[in-house]
Design goal:
The protein is built from eleven helices and 14 strands. It has 341 residues and is an alpha/beta fold. An eight-stranded parallel β-barrel has the order 7-8-9-10-11-12-13-14, surrounded by six helices. A four-stranded antiparallel β-sheet has the order 2-3-1-4. Strands 5-6 form a two-stranded antiparallel ribbon. Helix 7 links the parallel strand 11 and strand 12. The protein is elongated and about 65 Å long. The structure holds phosphoenolpyruvate and manganese (II) ion.
Length: 341
């Protein structure tokens, strides 16, 4: 026995009754109180629990189900939840038939440029505006992002374009301010195993886009999703953005096999970021099409009105007309695999 799912509306007393039973067997619990329902994760050697005891827990008032899960990630696993998770962000569904596209600059640079990019990606058919206000840069001397000012510009661009916004968190100390502005909180590749940050974001009730670490295995990535979910935030999407390999022709190696692998292992939506995956503008469109063919549930693509002058990731940013053309071409690929753009 590993996970106990409580019924919707189960009372505190019903929960405590189950917890007491488990604790009397020398087990510990993790209570994940989501918006939909509460889940009790059982920690310790559950082999000590006999089948009769398990049945009596299953029959206890307030309990919907008891599930045994062999994988180290529990709440994230397909064993725990068969149906795909759909995340509703301001009425845009991620994980359904339609594949929403998140597009925008790598970094929020100033109000004018952001507003112009938002208009362009909206016209191209994007469903979200992306843009970093807190940027993880390799060099401390590179542009680090505008901070809260950048978040304000994103909120204004959302107001004007109607596009919900995706933006990155780097530090738990910024959580409150980011939660006030963002519709989806991005955890970047470099922070995939920043466990304190994962736990903090797990306490927020905001959808999270969790990028794959630079050299992380799929199992490690799912364990990071589990950190977030263990705190009650079950609105997690996983974003493949390329991994480190020996290959230098592209910035990273976009591991598209991760998409069908994740579809087997987890119920969470899978997002693909071809921009960071390849690092070169001309390679973004073919890999975006491949991502859709592989089964991606959403895409995140960097677009800039003047990529040559961009303050970060200009080389991989599409020009608006390239983005528009890609969006037009993607429809046929999506239809071929039973999806829509
Ligand atoms: C980004 O989205 O601009 C970014 C920094 O991505 P990653 O964390 O995947 O490098
Ligand atoms: Mn970037």
């Amino acid at each position: 026995m590993d996970i106990i799912v409580l019924k919707r509306g189960a009372t505190e007393e019903e929960m405590r009754h189950v917890v007491k039973k488990l604790e009397s067997r020398g087990l510990r619990v993790n209570i994940s109180a989501g918006t939909e329902r509460t889940i009790i994760g059982v920690i310790g050697d559950t082999s000590k629990v006999t089948e009769e005891e398990e049945d009596s827990i299953r029959a206890a008032s307030g309990v919907e189900n008891v599930v045994r899960i062999l994988k180290p990630y529990k709440l994230a696993s397909r064993e725990f939840k068969r149906e795909n998770t759909e995340i509703d962000v301001r009425g845009v569904l991620i994980g359904g038939k339609k594949i929403p596209v998140m597009a925008g600059p790598c970094a929020v640079e100033n109000k004018t440029v952001l507003t112009a990019i938002a208009e362009k990606v909206k016209a191209g058919g994007a469903a979200f505006l992306r843009g970093g206000a807190y940027k993880p840069r390799t060099s401390p001397y590179s542009f680090q992002g505008l901070g809260e000012e950048g978040l304000e510009y994103l909120a204004e661009a959302r107001e004007k374009s109607g596009l919900p916004i995706v933006t990155e968190i780097m530090d738990p100390r910024d959580l409150d301010v980011i939660v006030r502005y963002a519709d989806i909180i991005q955890i970047g590749a470099r922070n995939m195993q920043n466990f304190r940050l994962l736990l903090e974001v797990g306490s927020a009730q905001k959808p999270v886009l969790l990028k794959r670490g630079l050299s992380s295995t799929i199992k490690e990535w799912l364990m990071s999703a589990e950190y977030i979910m263990s705190r009650g935030n079950h609105q997690v999407m996983l974003c493949e953005r390329g991994i480190r390999t020996f290959e230098t022709a592209t910035r990273n190696t976009l591991d598209l096999s991760a998409v069908p692998v994740l579809k087997q292992l987890t119920h969470l939506p899978v997002v693909v970021d071809p921009s960071h995956g390849v690092g070169k503008r001309d390679l973004v469109a073919p890999m975006t099409k491949a991502a859709v063919a592989a089964g991606a549930d959403a895409l995140i693509i960097e677009v800039h009105t003047n990529p040559e002058e961009a303050m970060s990731d200009g080389d991989q940013s599409l020009k608006p007309e390239q983005f528009e053309q890609l969006m037009r071409e993607l429809g046929a690929v999506a239809r071929a695999v039973g999806r829509e753009i």
